[in-house]
Design brief:
By secondary structure, the protein is of the alpha/beta class. The protein has ten helices and ten strands. Helix 1 links the parallel strand 1 and strand 2. The longest helix has 27 residues. It is globular and about 50 Å long. The chain starts with a strand and ends with a strand.
């Protein structure tokens, strides 16, 4: 059984529609896939409506959080998106994303970068507008040659000339909100050093005490020594560990299924969510 618990569609910052993500997941040999777009559940129904035979969908989300001023991401699974407290926060996050993105584009133009806000919105295709969409518009406009070049201090990296900080949840609050909505949380890529998502053991211990269920250990951006350390830490804290591709379509080389989650960890996830397997969508 092959399980990938972290993927994105063009509802947020992936490049492919939810239905195509599902088709590609099955073609990649997956039996279970989670759709975890940033701060939105808008792709769930489209994905569930086009599930290929033999593929199960775990509804999820990647929540934007801040811990001591540093961006931290939490994967929430199998929760009720209509739960009022969580739903209100998701609206607030998405509204701020729009304001933030528009301000970044304005700063870019002040710096001489001919980036169009209308084109950024077209690339986003919805209400979840992020820096990857701005970076793609920068490439199209000839400001930079690659998306990676946009994420530098010259442009839109954290602390960069055109960077604006996000509105985000406190991660302890986010864990509580997801649990209150019947779901379970996994800490996303906590040692993705290339991307600047690096959190010490003490942060994971703090989140575990608040109700974190698992840690994403096998991730394309994790070095072998970090994976081993995270497994040992999770075992000591009673957390399960997951493996996921964090696929964003063409932006990440269409890597669905590159990293996978073991069946016992998947079963632990189902047990940690009060809705359990009843919320998993099947064709």
């Amino acid at each position: 059984m092959r399980i990938d618990l972290h993927t994105h569609s063009d509802i947020s910052d992936g490049t492919r529609p939810p239905a195509e993500v599902m088709r590609r997941a099955r073609e990649a040999g997956l039996d279970v896939v989670a759709l975890t777009d940033h701060d939105t559940v808008a792709g769930w129904d489209a994905a569930a409506g086009e599930l290929p035979d033999g593929l199960a969908l775990v509804p999820g989300i990647e929540l934007s959080c801040l811990h001591d001023g540093q961006s931290l991401h939490l994967l929430g699974y199998l929760f009720d998106p209509a739960e009022p407290a969580l739903a209100d926060e998701l609206v607030r996050i998405r509204e701020h994303r729009l304001v933030r993105a528009r301000t970044i584009v304005r700063r870019l133009r002040e710096l001489g970068a001919d980036v169009s806000w209308d084109r950024v919105r077209e690339l986003a295709g919805g209400d979840v507008v992020g820096r990857p969409h701005i970076a793609r518009a920068m490439v199209e406009a000839g400001v930079v040659a690659t998306v990676d070049e946009a994420f530098t201090e010259d442009w839109i990296a954290n602390g960069g000339r055109a960077h604006i900080g996000p509105y985000a949840l406190d991660p302890l609050q986010a864990v509580q909100l997801v649990r209150q909505a019947g779901g379970a949380c996994v800490l996303a890529h906590p040692r993705a050093r290339r991307r600047g998502y690096v959190f010490g053991d003490e942060v994971i211990e703090e989140l575990a005490a608040a109700g974190l269920a698992g840690v994403e250990t096998d991730h394309p951006d994790h070095a072998p020594e970090d994976r081993a350390r995270l497994r040992d830490l999770a075992a000591g804290l009673g957390l399960f560990t997951t493996g996921s591709s964090d696929d964003h379509g063409g932006l990440t080389g269409d890597r669905l299924g590159r990293e996978t989650t073991a069946v016992p960890a998947y079963e632990a996830l189902l047990a940690a969510a009060s809705s359990g397997s009843s919320s998993v969508r099947r064709a």
